[in-house]
Target: 8-oxo-dGTP diphosphatase
Amino acid sequence: MKTPLSSCEAAEIRPPTVMVAAVSLLNAEGKVLLQQRPEADAHGGLWEFPGGKLESGESFEAALVREIAEELDLIVRPENLTPVTFATGAAGNAGRSITILLFCCRIWDGEPKPLAAAQLAWMEPAMIGTLAMPPLDYPLAERLSQILQSGFI
Ligand SMILES: Nc1nc2c([nH]c(=O)n2[C@@H]2O[C@H](COP(=O)(O)OP(=O)(O)OP(=O)(O)O)[C@@H](O)[C@H]2O)c(=O)[nH]1
Model:
């Protein structure tokens, strides 16, 4: 009879997936806010959708509300977050995978400030893919642009 794996052994065989919530903040001109990661960080100098990793037990929406306050000094509400798409891939070289869920948000309180970023930029959706970005942000940006063009969200 097989001995059941302890949670520790199972974790060694299958490393946890990094779960990330990201948002495309859309302004009245239809432009999307991107932020550039500081040079010293992982993926330094690359542009990304604002957001970050989920903390233990946190929902994607709760993580975004927290991350957007921390990174941009903006208040977003969960009811104003619309799911758009997701992307999955490898995270770093530790054998972990990463899943990023992208939401869209048109309503928030405050003016965005680059509290955690080197700089911020409002971009036409179709131009986001011309920026230097981490790998998963490219499919997110492409799908976002398609969905916005379709008028579906
Ligand atoms: N946006 C994005 N992030 C990625 C990709 N691949 C990948 O490993 N990541 C990693 O996913 C994490 C995103 O969460 P985050 O922005 O909160 O990470 P962080 O290191 O700034 O926050 P932390 O200080 O809380 O660790 C980063 O460590 C980033 O390097 C990708 O393709 N796109």
